[in-house]
Structure formats: structure tokens, C-alpha cells
């Protein structure tokens, strides 16, 4: 049941909510797991693996809502399609190592005695974090706002120029 006067949830809004989970879980899981590796604390390594598994589970919703949001955002006059396409490209290449790290982390939890596999997964998690960072940086260039907003070029008019146009 929706409240009268409330706005509906868009794909863009869902993407802005869901994309945070794989980002934070991949970065924190990799870092905590590596800290456990350096300090020789297996529980921290296992926590890192669990975080990578959960991050991999959230990659699909974040990626799919991003695809749906990209079509909506690309139609806006103040967003260049190239920015959205570049973000989509890097998001695709970021999703692959996150999902791979999550799948291998599940296997590493099954094979608890294989330290080399755990360490490989944690290093892969660091690589996935770097790829996510590039995708996030590209996505930060996308302007989010209401669909009826003015184009960015029209929103920043020099006041002196505007007064000269009135005369």
C-alpha cells in the first residue's frame, strides 16, 4: 500500500541503495581477511571469506538495477550517454572478480585446511576492490536528480551575462 503523495521507487533509487553492499563488503572483507593473514588469525580470514560470499550475493541485484537505471538515466538531457556506458563497462568488469572471489570463498570455507586457497581468494578480493573502485569512480560522474531537472549547462548561467541579455 503506497502513501498518497509519496514518490515511487525508481530503478535509479534501487541501484543507489543496492550497490553499496558489494562495495563495502568486498573492501572490508578483503582488508579484514588480509589483516587476519598477516596476524595469523584464522577467524579473521574466515570472516573475510564470509564477507566476500555475501558481497558476491549482492552483486547481481546491484548490477541488474544498474542496467535498468542506466536506460532511464541515459535518456536525461543532462547526462552524457558516454558516461553511463563507461560506468556500465567498468561495472561489468568489477562484477566478474567479485562474483569469482565469492564463489572461491565458498569453496575455501569448505576446504578449511587449504591456507593457500584462502590467501589467493583474499588477494583476489583486493583486486575486486580495486575494480569496484574504478567502476565507482566512473559512476560518480553521473548526475542524479529529478527527471524534470534543467540541463547542467542551463543551470549555471553567469548573472552578468543574464543581465546583459535583458537589456
CA(first)-CA(last) distance: 53 Å
Radius of gyration (Å): 21 Å
Shape designation: elongated
**Secondary-structure element pattern, one letter each:** HHHHHHH
Provide an overview of this structure:
This protein has 167 residues and is an all-alpha fold. It is built from 7 helices and no strands. Helix 1 (11-18) runs antiparallel to helix 3 (42-74). The longest helix is centred in the middle third of the chain and has 33 residues, at 42-74. It is elongated.
What can be said about this structure in brief?
76% of the residues lie in helices and 0% in strands. With 167 residues, the chain is mainly alpha-helical. The longest helix has 33 residues, at 42-74.
Could you outline the blueprint of secondary structure elements for this entry?
Blueprint: H1 11-18, H2 20-38, H3 42-74, H4 81-110, H5 115-139, H6 152-155, H7 159-166
Helix pairs in contact: 1-3, 2-3, 2-5, 3-4, 3-5, 4-5
Amino acid at each position: 500500500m503506497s502513501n498518497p503523495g509519496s514518490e515511487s521507487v525508481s530503478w535509479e533509487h534501487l541501484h543507489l541503495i543496492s550497490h553499496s553492499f558489494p562495495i563495502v563488503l568486498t573492501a572490508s572483507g578483503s582488508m579484514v581477511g588480509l589483516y587476519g593473514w598477516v596476524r595469523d588469525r584464522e577467524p579473521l580470514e574466515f570472516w573475510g571469506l564470509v564477507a566476500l560470499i555475501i558481497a558476491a550475493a549482492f552483486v547481481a541485484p546491484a548490477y541488474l538495477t544498474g542496467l535498468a537505471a542506466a536506460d532511464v538515466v541515459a535518456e536525461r538531457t543532462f547526462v552524457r550517454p558516454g558516461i553511463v556506458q563507461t560506468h556500465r563497462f567498468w561495472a561489468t568488469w568489477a562484477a566478474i572478480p567479485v562474483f569469482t572471489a565469492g564463489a572461491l570463498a565458498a569453496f575455501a570455507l569448505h576446504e578449511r585446511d587449504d591456507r593457500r586457497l584462502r590467501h589467493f581468494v583474499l588477494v583476489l578480493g583486493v583486486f575486486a576492490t580495486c575494480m569496484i573502485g574504478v567502476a565507482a569512480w566512473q559512476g560518480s560522474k553521473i548526475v542524479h536528480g529529478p527527471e524534470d531537472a534543467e540541463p547542467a549547462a542551463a543551470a549555471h548561467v553567469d548573472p552578468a551575462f543574464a543581465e546583459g541579455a535583458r537589456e
